Structure formats: structure tokens, C-alpha cells
Amino acid sequence: MKAIVKYCALLTMGMAIAFASVARADQPADIVTRSINQLQQETQGRSAEFQQNPNELRTLLERQLLPIADFPYISAMVMGRYYQAASTEQRQRFASTFQESTLDTLTRGLLTFDYEELEVSSAQQAQRYDDQANVSLEVRGTDGKRYPVSFTMRERNGDWKVINVIVNGINLGLTFRNQFDQAMREHNRDFDAVIQAWDPSAAVEEIQSSDGSDDANG
């Protein structure tokens, strides 16, 4: 089911929504595990409610996601080599546009996504840096396919925040950055035009070309 692959990235971005309330001593993998449990508690049995009132889900995601996703840092990485050439106002405007459009896309994705199980891997990668960690998990879709997911998290001032997500080998941060670069070329490096036309769902379409592994092959 292509929709499962497409929105797997969107779901995993939302699975981190409980990070803000976690004690500083917690390890990243523990934070993700707790986040998954809280996400399921917050959304279980509310599908019909969210379908009738998508803004309710949007508000839930905004309230809990914003404190733990480092959108200013992510948006700067998405702008890449163009960041230095942008004005302070343009940087701030793109960060806001990126944040709001990502929340909108995430909300639409979660309204249609269906999964069977979420599981944090017991074998996590060793940290290369004290302030950065990768947390691996696996999403099993209702079609039986499994999709590996990796959160890249950065510690700042004692708080761990998500700065990137890799789904089934697709690096979303890199995909968004390539999209921004292409848009700058198409709009003759007009920041205002690129910001106004920004749509993260276009980059997420790349995930549709990937496919998960079957349980039998898993």
C-alpha cells in the first residue's frame, strides 16, 4: 500500500510528540519509546473524531510537537548554501512557513495512515558525538510490510530535539534540501517566490517510490 510508505515519514515525525515533558536524564531511545506510547494513547479510538474535525488533530500535533522539533535548525539546514544569502526576515519567514506547512502535511497524512505496530529497536547505534544520537525503530503496516525509521536527535541546553528523520532509506532532511535547491534554481534565486510556493508534500512523494520488506523476508 503506497499510502503507508508515503505517510510513514509523517507518522514518525509525530511519534516524537512527548519529548518536551521528559526529564533531561533520559536517553534518546527511552524518550522515543515513551513518545510512541503517548502518541497511541492520545489518538487511539479517535479516528472518526479527527476525520470530522481535522483541526483537533492539528492542534494536538502543534501543542506537543513544536517544543521538541528544532524547526529553526531544520529549516536552516533545508536552505543549505542559500541560508547565508537570505535576509534575517527571509530566514524567519521560511522557518515559519516550513513549520506550518509540515504540520499541515503531517495532519493530512495521519488522517489516512494506518499501521499495525511501532517498535523501537533494542540495538541502537553508538553515539559519535555527545550532543547527537540516532534512534532506530520499525513501523509495521497493515499490509505486513516493515519500514525502518531513524530519528536524528540533537541535544542543546539539556534537551533532546529531532533534527532529521530517515524512512526506509529516504533522508527527509536531504530530500527537503534538494527540493529547496531546485526551487531556487527554478525561481532564479528569488527567496520570496520560493517561500511562498513551498510545499513539503512534494518532497514526501519520493517515499512512494520506496517499499518496505515483507515479514517473511524481514
From TrEMBL:
Signal peptide: 1-25
Keywords in alphabetical order: Signal
The keyword Manganese is annotated on this UniProt entry: no
Keyword Signal (UniProt): yes
Coiled coil feature spans: none
Pfam families: MlaC
Name this polypeptide is given: Toluene tolerance protein
